[in-house]
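Agenda item 2: guanosine-5'-diphosphate complex prediction
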Amino acid sequence: MGRRKKIVQECERLMDDPENIRNIAIAAHVDHGKTTLSDNLLAGAGMISDETAGEQLAMDTEEDEQERGITIDAANVSMTHEYEDTNHLINLIDTPGHVDFGGDVTRAMRAVDGALVVVDAVEGAMPQTETVLRQALREGVKPTLFINKVDRLISELQEGPEEMQERLLSVIRDVNDLIRGMTEEMDDIEDWTVSVEDGTVGFGSALYKWGVSMPSMQRTGMDFGEIMELERADKRQELHERTPLSDVVLDMVCEHFPNPVDAQPMRIPRIWRGDAESELAETMRLVDESGEVVLMVTDIAMDPHAGEVASGRVFSGTLEKGQELYVSGTAGKNRVQSVGIYMGGEREEVDQVPAGNIAAVTGLRDAIAGSTVSSTEMTPFESIEHISEPVITKS
Ligand code: GDP
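Presented output:
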């Protein structure tokens, strides 16, 4: 069996166990390293080759597909990661980095339960960091922080340990001030500030593929002094091998982001204003795969062969080929032609996609980004409002 086939089978197996699923987005101010980090995660999970990661040319690992030159659109990817002896399915939705795509960022947030916010260590929190945080928090999506480009502090700016620590702490402080300011009025959100001690902050270099967090330092026995030494000595390959970025970040994702079973009871009342006492509300809160099918479409893409592909979050029930589903705001029903998941960015058809997952669906000809698609007529999800950006002029 080919490697890809094996990964697909493993994803299909994991899809049935929502407790081991994490639906996440990576969000950042433009140029802070979101694309480079995403590629690293895919390479670390074995979805693309290590050499291509960072070149923004993510390709499938299968040789024949590399030869055929299939490049992936990293908009949606599923990958597996072993954490504490349990394999996890991580569905990553890429969010466009440019200010013009604010609407897409907000839509992506609807499909996920956790947002990894990437901040450039040199630039610090920027206007778009604030916007993506606001989008995440308003959707009830929990943030964690990755401070990127730490290699620059060490090798380029030649900062000493104290100066560097002060700089990193000030980034964390700024991000926490934003989180606190935005969640103050939200009584359903507990303390979502991030901290080094509890492992919700990671640091490192997406470019040189190394990363650290408090738990990773405890595990590898490496301290910051040693990391600075290796980075200064240009021993980045050694750093990558001893403390690979993807492991640190994917561990953080599994440990600190809620799975759909924990997230949906809190998220559903935020994004859906239907009858909270109804059976439908209950199946959505419980991520019940045997309940009515409820899909929130967050994106429509054109596939050269399959035509329009709708992707989105399955909040309840199990999506299957042949189902006749209502599409909010339109009359009549659409017939599901195929259901799939995104493997390393390519759509892979599967038999079923149960609640708690991100699905790729064809046949929903009336759906648009923002549609509620369901097996029973229902109150649609709240519309996804676009938060406009502060105007930024790049010098
Ligand atoms: P995005 O706009 O957030 O997706 O950012 P990219 O991933 O495209 O990165 C923007 C630029 O920063 C590229 O030139 C990257 O090579 C560079 N970059 C990304 N991560 C790092 C890092 O950890 N260290 C350094 N020195 N450069 C980085």
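Discussion summary: The chain has a mean pLDDT of 87.
Owner for follow-up: CH.
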